[in-house]
Design brief:
mainly alpha, globular, disordered C terminus, 11 helices, Ferritin
């Protein structure tokens, strides 16, 4: 039987601040002006864009499915502040999925089917976890990947509707990455039994999960390598930035979390 607190503590102020920011920042696919004329007049470019958007859409779907399963888990742990925030994260991912679905309609195209894009489904399968920190390490890869690809679409400015979609989603992704960092810092700010801040086993686990998801990205890029090149996106540079950014963000969260552990608690635990 699960026991819930009638009156939650709500002491994690930074998580609550992001929750309030997310509430104030909600928007809808109906806010996009879908009536604007397309600049995508080439059938070849439409085909290429439909293929390149496939891993982005699948990343949004993977985040939607997995974040929804984490909401009750944080409730069971009485981590209500994080549970609050994840409800908005789920709304964000649902919105992104709707936006890209409608944009595919605008293109008159469909994403790559599973028989041609098995690597995308393998990528999705590595993200889901019932352990919040492990899930955040995996979804960190998806969020950073989406950020980098959408920034490329903004740079290329292929279609006004796509550019607006990308700008809106990038704002949402910034909040997700902020929560990822804050939650991870909280995890690694807790004392392990040996008196250290954060568990060495926990650190190894999050690194393994991030690595497992990162390893699934190059096979996806291989499928759309020609499309990326013709559209003017350097996939090798993109992969390098992805690896570097994920490692930097994960290490920063671990380092800052451990540095926040109260020194008096560290001294007491070590004595």
């Amino acid at each position: 039987m699960n026991i819930y607190k009638v009156l939650p503590d709500l002491n994690r102020r930074r998580q609550l601040a992001l929750w309030h920011k997310a509430l104030r920042s909600q928007w809808s696919a109906e806010d996009v002006d879908w009536s604007r004329p397309q600049r995508l007049v080439s059938d070849r470019l439409r085909d290429q864009l439909a293929r390149v958007l496939t891993p982005v859409l699948m990343g949004e779907q993977a985040a939607l499915y997995s974040v929804s399963s984490l909401i009750p888990i944080l409730g069971h742990r009485s981590e209500v502040e994080g549970q609050f925030y994840l409800t908005t994260w789920a709304v964000d991912e649902a919105r992104h999925t709707e936006l890209f679905t409608r944009f595919y309609g605008r293109l008159g195209r469909e994403p790559l089917p599973i028989r041609r894009f098995q690597s995308g489904y393998l990528f999705q399968s590595q993200i889901a976890s019932r352990e919040p920190a492990e899930w955040l390490a995996g979804v960190l890869v998806s969020e950073v990947l989406a950020k980098l690809v959408l920034e490329e679409f903004v740079r290329l400015d292929l279609d006004p509707v796509l550019s607006d979609i990308c700008h809106g989603i990038l704002t949402d992704e910034a909040r997700h990455l902020g929560f990822n960092q804050i939650y991870m810092e909280d995890v690694f700010g807790e004392l392990a039994p040996d008196g250290s801040a954060g568990s060495p086993a926990a650190e190894a686990t999050v690194h393994r999960r991030a690595r497992a998801v990162l390893d699934r990205v190059p096979p996806m890029f291989d499928v759309v390598a020609e499309d990326l090149s013709e559209m003017g996106i350097d996939r090798h540079h993109l992969l390098e930035r992805l690896e570097r950014d994920v490692a930097r963000r994960l290490e920063r969260s671990i380092r800052r979390g451990r540095s926040r552990a109260p020194q008096e608690e560290l001294t007491s635990a070590a004595s």
